[in-house]
Model the fold of this input.
Amino acid sequence: MEHYAGLDITPPAYSGSREVLDKDVFRKSIDVLAIRSPPGKVGKILKSEITRKSILDLPRVRTVVSNPRDPDGDRLVLLRASSEADLAPSVLDYLKVEAHGFENFALTLDYDYWTADDILRSFFPPELREGSPSGFAIIGHVAHLNINAEYLPYKHVIGQIILDKNKRIRTVVNKLDTIDHQFRFFKMELIAGEPDYIVEHHESNCRFTFDFTQVYWNSRLHTEHDRLIQIFQPHDVVADVFAGVGPFAVPAGVKGCGVLANDLNPNCARYLKQNVQDNRVSTGVRVYCEDGRDFIRRAVTRCFDEPFLPYTGSRMSRTQEIKVQRRQEKAPPAEVVLEPRRRISHFVMNLPDSGITFLDAFRGILADDVRKLEDVYDIMPMVHCHCFTRELERERAEADILQRVSETLGHPVGDDVSLHLVRSVAPGKEMYCISFRLPREVAFGR
Ligand SMILES: C[S@@+](CC[C@H](N)C(=O)[O-])C[C@H]1O[C@@H](n2cnc3c(N)ncnc32)[C@H](O)[C@@H]1O
Done:
């Protein structure tokens, strides 16, 4: 309970219906001490070091109001006090000189004043007050909650409060237990607002549009997306095996990378294409919709046979690119030799549940009798593979992941390897990203 020198600034205990929120119950009148001040002196009183800490300072509440009994006369400056006894002697002495005396003022706080947390705590029966479900993820205009079973009877009220208290939110959904096992998106139920699930979400300075009911999106991964995007150099080619709607692929394209982006979910591929267009990276980002294993096997040939245009430091339109290409074919500039990009520098594999099991697809991807891939792949690609582990202790987690990776590759990973703890996804379950250089023995092996 928050006390302001005798003032009880807490919402009233809820006494209305538990099915439908009765907003009137949250109206509360608080007797506040005020001083009468001539309009010309209000500024001085507000700024005074002596009174500063005694002035009422509540969010969204006006501190200086007109006197209901004398609207054209003195102003009322509201204090953090219910009576003169709450004020320090120095403050009383100062105000006796500067102001025209004290007055009681009935301050009304209502539903609009209280925060979502205040209202939820007041609304729930005492046994549910701790840990009330006010946390949610925001994806575009959608608030996404994961409500615990004991709060489910109140889900519509919870949704209503979140909707009322967050102006950007138009739709509130609760995650249901069922997950689409292949494409990793959750079933959800509408608990308040409009049934509009097509969101426009911003991440890594890019705009993403997608239907939140049909594709995977997790805002908690944004630092992981940014981390890998920072590792990519603008001249790199990146193959994103499980690209979703493009949180790695699109920003990488914006950075200048050539990107082969793939997702087996046709809805992902559809929105990925749209996001590529909306962020104007169509020339650098190519979209595929196939199984990750096939995509890994085809990526090298695709990049070799249809290389990405050289990185020139700027994003170009298709027409500009063609012009540059023609110019280079005719007379490449003597000082800067811009090579078409035929080599994949990074594979990204964010499907933590089963990503490691796809690593066998790398066996022999560079064993090609026709194309001279040894010359192009003087530097081997890095593979960034996300995965889960039940091992919570760092050394054991690393050993567990390394063992599974080596087993599926059929070869130990070399020295160029690092592991990054992405986040704890559940009690006893951590998400890691293992980054390793693809061993030559694996890629060139028959
Ligand atoms: C965990 S999500 C990651 C999406 C995105 N990369 C991100 O970071 O938000 C995994 C993605 O892999 C896709 N997927 C699942 N199985 C696949 C497969 N066999 N081949 C290709 N994509 C697959 C899913 O549709 C989903 O979009």
Remarks:
- The domain at 203-443 is CATH 3.40.50.150 (Rossmann fold).
